[in-house]
Amino acid sequence: MDGSVKVCFTSDVHGNCGHLRRVLARATREGCDVVVLGGDLAPRGSGMGFDGKTLRDTNLPHLPDGTPDWQHDGALTYMRDAFKRQGEWFTEVLIPMLAACDVPSVCLFGNSDWKSHLETCRRAAASTGGHVRFVQGEGDMFTIASRTTTATTVDVMACSLVPLCNHKKKDWERMDTRDVRDTSDRAPVRWGFVSAPGEEGGIKRCELPVTAEAAATTSMEAVLERLIASCAEERKEKKPPAMWVLHPPPRDSIGDLTHRGERVGSIAIRRAIETHAPAVTLHGHIHESVEMHGGRFSEVVKSGEGGERETVIVSVGNDFKVENPYVIFLDTAAPRDARRVEVLE
Which Pfam families does the entry mention (predicted)? Predict the structure, then answer.
């Protein structure tokens, strides 16, 4: 990438306002040009701000084994309440916090953020004159800039979509590749809840398709190919931006290992990285993977016939439930030198 833009990146805040305040303060002290929030911004449940309660502490109906009964009518009521409160948190808490920070910010939704709130956030953020921005979750391109050298800009490709999994919010979930087996072999949970404007409470139950047609047209692989082509055309170049912000990590990387020892990253993202070799990709989604790798948060993937091209894959490994948040500080001119910092105050 040409030019130096200083980026503060984190993800998976999940409504923890204390964490977010510290991240914004640290970005200001570091003299960053932009804060990029890579998804899963808002509270997961019905609490405003940081909701430390587990599902077992709520009024959500439970089965005899202690797990939530998501098929119960009370579960739909719970999700509708959470949907409403999440929307209030975006407009009443998050956007004012970002607007008050000296450093401009760009926000990407994640799989825990209800899709219907995105346009509301984009309209509310418009009043900041571009200081706070929200990008489209199905795929978007945005530009970040140095605050000291106005001619220095970097294009960034972004996408919220995640492979179909066992989470209950399904707005941003898709089949992974054009091969149905790459999704079905994971035995994902296909049913859950999606945004539904006009429906009572704004959401409804759903069951996502795992079919050859869906794999061919709406899988992450299909979406990423269209997005990459669109970005290249918009930039009037043969290649997409050199920096990507994708909520989920690529398969078999430092970002996709769970506490259960499972690899849950996206095969489609891995293929796209190896094909197009962006300079750097930033990811969240799997909170514990960096911990599972002993604190290692970045790796270099080589591609091309002679391995002459390389991509730095970076996972922030932030967990909203722990005492302190983690951030990535990255200079776009030197992605290999990215730092992962625990923000203590």
Answer: Metallophos
- In order of 9, 313, 331, the CA distances from 308 in angstroms are 27, 16, 22
pLDDT tens by residue, 240-292 = 999 999 999 999 999 999 999 999 999 999 999 999 999 999 999 999 999 99
Q: Mark residue 202 as left, alpha or beta (left: phi above 0; alpha: psi -120 to 50; beta: remaining).
A: left
- The CA distance from 79 to 144, in Å, is 35
Q: To which H or E segment does residue 300 belong?
A: strand 298-303
Write down the domain spans for the chain. Answer: 6-342
In sequence order, the 6+-apart residues with CB closer than 8 A to the CB of 270 are: 250, 251, 252, 253
The Cα 270–Cα 297 span in angstroms is 16
Q: Domain 6-342 is of which CATH architecture?
A: 4-Layer Sandwich (3.60)
- Positive/negative CA dihedral, 143, 147, 150, 151: negative
- Cα-trace Rg, the chain: 19
The neighbouring-strand residues paired with 143 are 155
Residue 330's closest CA among 1, 3, 8? 8
* pTM (2 d.p.): 0.95
Cβ neighbours around 152 below 10 Å, total: 17
Q: Could you give the CA distance from residue 125 to residue 234 in angstroms, rounded to a whole number?
A: 24
Greatest Cα-to-Cα distance within the chain, rounded to the nearest angstrom: 62
> pLDDT tens digits for 88-106?
999 999 999 999 999 999 9
